[in-house]
User: Fold these one by one.
Assistant:
Number 1:
Amino acid sequence: MTAVARPTTPPPVRSSRTRLRDWSDLHRSTTIIVAMVIVAITMYILPLFPPLTFIQGAGTWYDAFANAGVFVLLAMGLNVVIGMAGLLDLGYAAFFAIGAYTYAYSNSPYSHLDLPFFPMLVVGAFVAAVFGILLGAPTLRLRGDYLAIMTLGFGEIVPIVFLNLDQYTEGTNGIGGIYRPEPLAFTIPFTDFKVFDLGPFSAISPFNYFVVMLGIVTVTMILLYRLQDSRIGRAWNAIREDELAAAANGINTVTTKLLAFALGATTSGLAGVFNASKLTIVSPDQFLFTVSFTVLAMVILGGMGNIWGVAVGAFVVYMIQVVILKNINTVLESIGFPAFTIPGIDLHVDLAKVPFVEFQFLLYGVALVLMMLLRPEGLFPSQRRRQELHIAEEYDDGLGETTDISAVLAEAPAPERDPSSFDLSDDLKSDDLG
Amino acid sequence: MTNILHATRVTKRFGGLIAVNNIEFTIPDRSIVSLIGPNGAGKTTFFNIIAGIYDPTAGHIDFGGRPVISRPRRAWLEPILWLLPPFLLAALLFLIGGDNQAVELAGIVAMVSTLVVVLLVGVSRPPWYQRFLIRLGIFKSARPNDMVVNGLGRTFQNIRLFQNMTAMENVLVGMHSRLKASWLDALFSTPRDRKEEQTSRVRARELLALVGLKGRDDMVAKNLPYGDQRRLEIARALGSNPVLLLLDEPTAGMNPRETIQLTSLISKLRNELGLTILLIEHDMRVVMEISDRVTVLDHGEKIAEGTPDEVRRNPKVIEAYLGAPPV
């Protein structure tokens, strides 16, 4: 074999940054917990001080953070389906709806049930998983576009079913008056001492929701990272790269894809339960295609396949959408941003009066187009995606250093290959036809 | 010597094209058998039938003494079998329920859960379910992943590595079917999962060293030189501890030195690991050097079979490769 002449032992130069990265790879869960504690403290402190207080009050900020958490969960779940297993799911909001309606049944005057919130988180997620399996088992043999159309259909059907099954779901009105979760406070036995006493959950004090959401996101993130690094995560990746080769290497592609689908649905159901308990009302119009689309856009913008990247992407997109676009007019007005006229074409511009909220989807579209052109792997891509999308730019020689490919090629004798052995029609699998 | 694989009158048609016609084929245990023939002779199709990618149009294949591949029988019955329990349940509840809303809800829940259980069983196909199907006269060929579990490893004619995964990860994917940790183990990071992950990494490193890729564990597959990619594919196939290894043109595009190395690797696999090897190869030096037996295909038919020397002297083979002699 004509190997590139290179030193047998790589020089042991390891920056503190690589050492930190190696440590965090070894202790994933600890790293996530530490990171989330830092994030939580930052999120707690920042809204108390200017400039964030100019925009809205601290309580409103916490409320927005908790709502953003719902989308972070959704994006992380969709990332399992799209980013890890490579299945395009366009009807993801359906599972969100199923989780939400499950909680609505178990905790509202409508059904006269008042089941505890935390167990219902698990139950709602489980019910969503069941529907994920029901949809996935017959359809996951389909590939690419066909699967996308199937899931799109499912995503459309579910809200319509909830809308028309008014005997059970009150139709358009939805199920209202859903009970809020019981207080977090936990009394230590035989004492009067209470832990986690943050008062009751309510609309005016959303801090409790914020705390619970941080907990859910942390746990989900730890579990998803564990899956990604496991045998199952490798199998998903193999299926995403080459399904036939994965099957020929002993991966049961159907069950593995089904697992990804069901786990995505589970995370979505979890988010649905939380969302229902926070909004205290569920109705079919909360789960339209726009939700699926928004989450998909978040996953793509955040960096498909990278769990924390997707989470940050979802958070940022939600914040832009709900906080910045909503408040930009008020802020512009309050600082007295002057209306101006563009000379020459005589266009009168008053930014304070532009309805930015209505331009939401226009802005999404522009952002997505720009993203695909400039940075198709997303804002925070996983190592793997970066390799896939930038083929020749990097040549990782396995020594942890990136070198210029032209230098390496000049140094190495070109591997001798028979041009006929390269089959360019790989996707047509012409070799399989004998 | 027992036969590890026995193909009986296997035929495969693609529309009007008969790719493989009525082939009898056996692979004795611990032997190296080669399959040669001009391009388009049906070698790879036959390979893919053995690997479970295609169902044959006729005939069947026994692997390790069990019939595993043949044309599906009564396959249409299976979906009916899946839908039957929920339907029966629905009928039952309809009979006893009337218009009691509680019974109606309970019925829906019961139906959905039965359907989910049945679908899960049908998709994951545990052994008892397969025995049950055979008792009902339903037969479905083993799929590629079932064949790997049965003990078959394969490489592809044009390399199909997982390009963006490292060499180590590629081998670990190859070991997938032999690892026991489930997704729940991974979720809760059980000791079993962690231990298995460590031992499998050690084993993967051994396999990489065996095929001559020592120290290249962390290189991304697509950055490996061509010859190394071929070898990595063999290491990946070895990951599942196969009994029978199918190699599809392993030396294609290699220079003479690499070819010699690979030939010795193949003999080593047989002599030291006790593998049986089925080889498709165009390089006659390799074929004649290591094969115990050679089978020649042409236009989907078997035209000759025997030891390398016999095949070399067979006039039909010479004709297939060089054309008919002038009269």
Number 2:
Amino acid sequence: MKKGNVVMLVAAVALPLSFWALAPAGTEWAGTDDRVGELAQPAGRALLEGPAWTPATERLLFFGQATAGAALLAGSVWRMKARRGRN
Amino acid sequence: MSRGIFLHISEGFLPWTHAAGWTLISAPCFVYSLRCASVEMAAGPEARLRLAAAAGFLFALSALKLPSFAGSCSHATGVALGAILIGPAVMPALAFVVLLFQALILAHGGVTSLGANLFSLGVVGPMVAWLIAGSSTPSRARAFLAGFVGSLCVYAATSAELALAFPDAAGGVSSAFARFAGLFAITQVPISAVEGIVTAVVVATVNSYTQSPGGLTAPREVAG
């Protein structure tokens, strides 16, 4: 990997971490959600309500989705690298 | 658990006329996208790997919740990578899978709002990112801008959808749009900046391992 990409990759990982480090105490998991919800209330009829998870389970599911996506991305890039190496 | 909007408009929030309207608008985009995705799948192993990378990126970033300095959390979108590497035409199909998964499993978004969410995440964001990138091998600055602006445009589209459904009593749709967009901007501008950086890194990495540029040819192949 090129040096410039390594620097950007470090920045890309460090930036989100800094967000968590610098976030105000008591940052809400669904803060934006609640604020927008003050302007927009349900105006239609729900066809299918999703499961009502506990906050901890919800966070775990979000983390699981992000991890699965990252694994698929990493696996694809790894296969591309292997194919390039063979050719 | 809080049931709300985030990036995706929640189940039951849109009036049924709006939900039906956005579904009608998004449906042809989705059908065309399925065709483009099948062409990409048949184009060879390298094209399939690009498609898988785009799907993984979208799946990962659309669940990556980050706190903002304003004291609330939101998540990135991940729309730019696929739009740059393959073209915007395949993105509605990928976005549909993500939105359906999140609506059914995570209770995030909804079935009635799927059309509106698909239009913002699968159509508007990728199209803007693709137009900004200009090629499947953009410079880092262009890839960053594509990720940054593409992500912001997803939220701008969501704000417009909400503003149309919930116009301000005094200021109408434009005033409502300004209020929704203002709320999203607090959290989304810094998160979109991170998304732009991550997009630039992944685009450069993927392009350094692929032998033939993909991307912008996909829609034309299908049309021909």
